[in-house]
Amino acid sequence: MYLANTAALRFNKTSPFSKTKESNKGKFTLSRLVSATSWTTLATVVNLLLTMAQLAVLVRIITPSVFGQFAVVNMVIEVFVAFALGGISNFLVYKKNADQPTSNAIYFLALGIGGIFTLVLFLLTPFLATALGYESIVQELRLATVLLVISSLASQYQAVGMKNFHHQRVAQVDIIAKILSFIFAISFSHLDLLCLVGAIVIYQLVRLVGFMIVLGKEVNLSTKVNTSIYREAFNYGIFDFGSQALNIVRRQLDVIILAVTLPSSELGVYHVIKQLASRPAQALQPIIGKVALPAFAEVKEDQTRFARVYKDFFILQLFVLAIIYIPVIITSDLVTELFFGPDFVQHSWVLSILAVFWFVRVASSNLVGPLVQATGYTKRNFLWNVILILPNTLVIYASSQYGVVSLVLAMTVFQLILFPIVNYYFILFITKVSFSFSLRNMVIVVLSLAAPLSILKYSILPLIPEIFLVKEVVVALLTFAVAAMLLVFFKELKSSLIRVKGF
């Protein structure tokens, strides 16, 4: 496992996963990494499937205007949750060997910050709703403010679970919370906006209670605190907090601007399609955050191992992203009709372009967060987000004047331009891995999937009769066949998978 004690697990110069004479401890730690990845992946897949199923059901019941209102609520909550977390949610992982008084101090700090921002948002709710032109969402937005303190506390329990590699417990709690949230949403769809907001509140509340039950002994909370740690926590957290807050603002800029320029019904359509395009990418973040962060933190002192571990995570993440997104990009009309019905097929081009955007964004920069958090370069990440906020705003605002298609096209082109810059500013600087590595592997994986899927769509699918799910099954079978061939013949992918699994 990446989080093994360095003295207990020796690696040779060519592989961070090589076996040594101390193989018993090595196998144990490697097995913990595999277990952590497996459980985190399981929770991610369950969460994604239930979210997509919930969206597919509710979009046929709830009007687009309600989804537009929910887009605004979700945007406000995301921004304020970043403030409530205060950038210290990963501080315990960063410290690695924090004693109990230090853990207590961070817990109470998170509670205080979460409580303050809950009160602030509760008081500001009427003014924010009025400023955005959505006065009708005040009550639901006030209900959602409880998410701030809940998220602050849950993040600390989750950090302890990650640090001690109790990913199984964390994943099990997450699955139970998502199932209960799904049941609520489907059962109370007649509540419209309250149904959507309530489902999120239930999910986060059940997670917190579950973490308290299964990780309570690990946290072992007491009133003995190490107040001297607050300075270091603030120094670490202020830039991580700023980076996360600015990154979320950047991610929600389209909703912020469209909330002002579009009617709620059109915003709702855009929000629904964006959810479909972004959910797979966002679902990968728990895997990256819960597994890559502690892995990077462990190997960061050895540059060779650090670079190798980064490459392994990049290739495996790229492979998973391609399996999900390339079929969506090529056959967006089938995907749109399957999830949302024939009325949404006219918006399939928006889904294709947004899928390209999220594929490039996650593949190019999703590992940046764990890298800077593990190495302490949070200030560098903060400055990056400060620099980007203005050009990103200008691109979104200018392109939104010409419609949604122009907006998503401009966002995608901008993200493609950022790809090599992100690599130079973060990846090359921290890991010494060049842009050519990222680009070469991305081209190989994308073309391997896009070429046969394009031939299938334009040459074979038109000949297949319109029978429910037949075309979708054909696309899925071809995708998995190509993926299997990549696993066998793509040496870089195969080697990365073997190293991570510890074979």
Straight-line N-to-C gap: 12 Å
Strand count: 0
Total number of distinct structural domains: 1
Q: In oligomeric terms, what are we looking at?
A: single chain
* Class computed from helices, strands and strand pairing: mainly alpha
**Sequence of secondary-structure elements:** HHHHHHHHHHHHHHHHHHH
Number of H/I helices: 19
**Biggest sheet architecture:** none
Radius of gyration: 23 Å
Basic shape: globular
**Fraction of residues in helices?**
over 70%
The average pLDDT score comes to 83
- The stretches of 5 or more residues where confidence is low (pLDDT under 50) are 1-28
Give the DSSP E fraction (strand runs of 2 or more residues).
under 5%
Would you spell out the secondary-structure blueprint of this structure?
Elements: H1 23-58, H2 64-85, H3 91-95, H4 100-132, H5 138-144, H6 146-163, H7 167-187, H8 193-219, H9 229-261, H10 264-299, H11 303-330, H12 332-340, H13 348-365, H14 368-375, H15 378-400, H16 404-431, H17 435-460, H18 470-489, H19 491-501
Describe the overall structure.
The protein has one domain. By secondary structure, the chain is mostly helical. The radius of gyration is 23 Å and the shape is globular. Helix 11 packs across helix 19. It has 19 helices and no strands. Helices cover 81% and strands 0% of the residues.
